[in-house]
């Protein structure tokens, strides 16, 4: 295997590793969204009707709170 071929192979391998990490992350984010929905008192609506049933205003609140928490975690 030539040097540039090996480098390309290693880059592809890293991409697969990153994708595997992303698969784990949605569960964590989904848990956080459910926690926030519970705090906002809309957990029953989410469980019964789904996320699509929320108004844009409430969805924005959830997204904002989620973003703040993720920033705190990453610091």
Q: Which structural class should the secondary elements be placed in? A: mainly alpha
The best one-word shape is globular
Number of strands: 0
| Head-to-tail CA distance between termini | 41 Å
Helix content: over 70%
Strand content: under 5%
Number of domains: 1
The average pLDDT is 81
How large is the count of helical segments?
Answer: 3
Question: Measured on Cα atoms, how large is the radius of gyration?
Answer: 19 Å
Pattern of helices and strands: HHH
Low-confidence stretches: none
The major beta sheet can be summarized as: none
Region (Disordered): 1-26
Protein name: Spore protein
InterPro entries: SASP_alpha/beta-type, SASP_alpha/beta-type_CS, SASP_sf_alpha/beta
Pfam family, one: SASP
Structure description:
The protein has 75 residues and is an all-alpha fold. It is built from three helices and no strands. Helix 1 packs across helix 3.
Topology:
Blueprint lengths: L2 H37 L3 H7 L6 H19 L1
What brief labels describe this structure?
75 residues; mainly alpha; 3 helices; 0% strand
Short account of what is shown:
The chain has 75 residues and is mostly helical.
